[in-house]
Amino acid sequence: MVKFSKQFEGQLVPEWKEAFVDYWKLKKDLKKIHLLNNEKTESNKKNNSFSCTLISYINKYTSLGPKQREHRVIQVHQKLAASACKGDMYETELLEQFADTDAAVKFFACLDLQLNKVNQFFRTKEKEFLERGDSLKKQMEILIELKTAVKQQRAKGPSFQDSKEEDSISGTISCDEESIKDRTDQEQGLENSTDELDKNDMQCTESPTSGELGKPIRMKKENGKFRSLSSRTINYQGKNLRIHIPMTNPTRTFSSITYLLWDDLVNQSSKKCGLDENKLHINRTKLHHAEKMIRGAFVELYKGLGYLKTYRHLNMLAFIKIMKKFDKVTNKQVLPIYIRVVESSYFNSSDKALKLADEVEELFIKHFAEDDRRKAMKYLKPTQRKESHAVTFFIGLFTGCFLALFVGYVIMAHISGMYRPKSNTVYMETVYPVLSMFSLLFLHLFLYGCNIFMWRKTRINYSFIFELSPTKELKYRDVFLICTTSMTAVVGVLFVHLSLKSKGYSYAQVQVIPGLLLLVFLLVLVCPFNIIYKSSRFRFLSVIRNIILSPLYKVVMLDFFMADQLCSQVPMLRNLEYVACYYITGSYKTQDYGYCMRTTYYRDLAYTVSFLPYYWRAMQCARRWFDEGHKSHLVNLGKYVSAMLAAGAKVAYEKEKSVGWLCLVVVMSSGATLYQLYWDFVKDWGLLQFNSKNPWLRDELMLQKKFIYFFSMGLNLVLRLAWLQTVFHYNFGSVDYRVTGLILAALEVVRRGQWNFYRLENEHLNNAGKFRAVKTVPLPFHEVDDQD
Fold first, then answer.
1. Whole-angstrom Cα distance, residue 761 to residue 687?
2. CA–CA distance from 354 to each of 129, 365, 530 (Å)?
3. What is the pLDDT of residue 785?
4. What number of other Cβ atoms are within 10 A of residue 99's Cβ?
5. Conformational region of residue 388, where left means phi above 0, alpha means psi within -120 to 50, and beta covers everything else
6. How many C-beta atoms surround the C-beta of residue 580 within 10 A?
7. Can you tell me whether residue 642 is helix, strand or coil?
8. What are phi and psi of 783, to 5 degrees?
9. Nearest C-alpha neighbor of 72 from the set 375, 434, 334, 367
10. What Cα–Cα distance (Å) separates residue 347 from each residue in 200, 360, 727?
11. pTM, two decimal places
């Protein structure tokens, strides 16, 4: 049977962990009482007598009347808090002596503190969700009215004139810097307000309902003008509204700008023709975007209300369990008294959140699921995929096949002398890049699977951080299955290729095999059929598209996380570039493997590929600075610029190996390395905090053993210095220099793998510090101040 403490830890909301009952601290205090009781019992046994035993027996079973007398061991006092937002405060008074009264007083003081903390947090979150619910209801009403008005206007034609001025709706779509800045200011206000909520005493803030979900805001004027592409607003039933569709992708950005220009043309023509200027000029596409935003906000609100329900249930169980243990240890009847108080406290007695959840469910079913409850529940309560034992079986099967084929390939390559300094040049220049490319790719994917395993084990909510769908995300077993299957196929094909070559087949006959292997993998990646993890493949392609088109797309966590992975895969990208050139130009037919190296455009492309991942990442930093306005993104941009300069110097040194270029490589790489190490340790990992309770680390750590963090920092430092191979040109014994390059590239991938864990650990702790458990969803309709 699973212990309650394990069950409690496994079911609580990770980002709200500090707001839950500190069950482990209460157990420690109770253990102290238990030890003191045992000591006193042993001492009493020496002085025990028959009379004492008889008196205790009589006291225990003495009854007054037909019912046993209820001993009031404790009395819980209810007091009004100094601040109204804290609600009622509870304080327990002991009416009987305990074996160790001081320990019991400390236990109940801690218990009262936990009860007050739970009540306050529940009150804060409930008020936040209720205000969010009211805002969403108003947003839904506006959306329904606008959709109805659009349909009526389309049905009655462009010459239709509405007789009632209050029902006339005019508007444009604004999705410019203003909407982004206002939303950013709102989120900053949220962070400032939640930072004031101390985790220990849970003090209430002035405005706790500013909302992790976001809420519609009243837009302010700056210098008497609105910063927008168009100053026109929507006048809806006497209220000025503005629709904000965030510029999350190029299509939405260009369509919004086009729509603004078209709206201005329509308004100018309306003025010339004497038509009413306040006519509706919002098309269905814009309303569809607004509808999607509201639907997403409803889903997140429902998820937050579900978390609040879990919060109520688990805390109630925790109080019951700890009081049962207390009664068992002290032989007192305290459970009924204290649990009666807990049951009547605010977090357990308030049903506002439950009613709101029912309302949200009804609204969603009616407006977004066409009265189909089953369809609505797919959005509101998505079910996670069940893990199959068949996946584990195939992982073991393909792992064995891979190891067997790899050993056979290594033996055959050793006999053929392929990887020695004086090896077969054609093979090493044409086939080996394919093996190197796939090895680096699937090593990276394998480490990502290890990251998922560790994130789940340490309760890091990576799905929320990456905004992954719980029904479609890859589990670590799925990732391991992809790696083992793919590498089995790669090594098997290359083993067959090497076997055919050793049997006397010419390169002209077998050289097409590695190219076909690469082509098959590309076809599987873009396969439109619902096979082989289609949703994950298409999500990967969409993320790559977002990275390539930076800074046109709004940057989310998954985008810049993947861009960082590409920064560690520059050797793989260069191998891909060479293999593509080798097969596209038809060089494999003539075995002219040096053709691409002699071509000017290929050398220029090699230079571009070397710094392209850093350029994409720098553009993402620029976009985040534009959206959020934080100067730290500009500092981060400088890190990638320094990496671009270092990569460019290395490529130039490879072309012209002179002392001048070598000195430039050393200077640029040293500066970039110091820049990157500082950002890794301080910014990405949140370590090296000198005033922390964990010296040189940070206050909150997900791993119990602190030496792991110091070891990881040292390993990261060593692996960051892999560029020194460019200077010293060291090799591992008699191994070909290309194999040495592969080993160093693999070490960089390993460094990135460990970086990934600490990066998400720091992100998770930031979310937990702000109690942010659901996504911030901006709302489309915002009321504008009338002071023009």
1. 11
2. 11, 17, 38
3. 60
4. 18
5. beta
6. 14
7. helix
8. -80, 135
9. 334
10. 18, 20, 65
11. 0.83
